[in-house]
Amino acid sequence: MISAILLAAGQSKRMNGENKLLKKIYNTPLINHSVRNILSSAVDELIIVLGYDEDILKKKIIKSQKIKFVFNKDFKTGMSSSIKIGLENLSEKCEAFFISLGDMPLVSDDIYNKIIKLKDNKKIVVPTYKGQQGNPIMFPKFMKKKIMIIEGDVGAKKILLENKNDILNLQIDDDSIIRDFNIKENFNI
After folding, report:
1. CA distance 99 to 4
2. Are strands 24-25 and 28-29 parallel, antiparallel or unpaired?
3. Closest to 123 in 3D by CA, of 135, 115, 133
4. Cα 21 to Cα 32, 40, 66, 94, 96, distances in angstroms
C-alpha cells in the first residue's frame, strides 16, 4: 500500500490574511488541485493533515473514501508536528509514503506514478528538476522512526541530508515539483 500525507495545516502567513489553500486556481480551491492529483494517482491512502481553518478546509475538500482527515492541534509549532501526526495515522499496511505539500497544486498524478514506479524498500525517492530537489518525496516505511524525531518548522530536508546514500533521484522535466504557492504573485498563472 502506498500512502500520501498531505500537509494542509499552515497559516498562510505570507498571504496577508488569506488562506492560500482556499484561493482559487481555474475556479477551484488550490487544495483540491493537490488532492485530486493524488487521488488520480496510484496512491492507495491519503491522509490530510489540517490545522488552521480546519472546518472551512474540510468542507471545501473533495470527498473520497481514500481520504482520512487528521487534526494537528500544534500546527502553530511548524511543519514537523504535521508530518508526525500524518505518520501516526498511516495504515499498518503502508509500504511507502509520500510527504506532500498542500500548496503545490501543479504536481500531476503522472509525477506521483513515476515516483511510485521507482519504489524501493530501502531508498528514498526524490524528484529533481534541473538538479534541484523537489516534492513530493516518497519514503520507505522503515524511515518513519527517523522522521518522527524532527522538530520545529522543518520538513524532511534534515532526513535527506542525513541519509544521502539512501536517495534515488528521479529527474522530472516539470518545474511543478519545485513550485509552491506562498504569495499572491504565485497565483498569476
Report:
1. 6
2. antiparallel
3. 115
4. 8, 19, 20, 27, 26
Quote the CA–CA distance of 53 and 164 in Å, as a whole number. Answer: 36
Among 52, 35, 151, which Cα is nearest to 104's? 35
Residues forming beta bridges with residue 116, ordered by sequence position: none
**Is there a contact between 109 and 117 (Cβ–Cβ < 8 Å)?**
no
Q: Identify whether the C-beta of residue 174 lies closer than 8 Å to the C-beta of residue 134.
A: no
Pairwise CA distance, residues 4 & 138, whole Å: 8
Tens place of pLDDT for every residue, the chain, 189 residues? 999 999 998 765 665 666 778 888 889 999 999 999 999 999 999 999 999 888 999 999 999 999 999 999 998 888 889 999 999 999 999 999 999 999 999 999 999 999 999 998 899 999 999 999 999 999 999 999 999 988 766 677 788 988 999 999 999 999 999 987 665 566 666
First to last CA, the chain: 35
Task: Please tell me the pTM assigned to this model.
Answer: 0.93
Q: Where are the alpha helices (DSSP H) in the chain?
A: 30-39, 54-60, 79-88, 109-117, 144-147, 157-162
Question: Which phi and psi (to 5°) does residue 5 adopt?
Answer: -105, 115
Please state the separation of Cα 155 from the chain's center in Å.
10
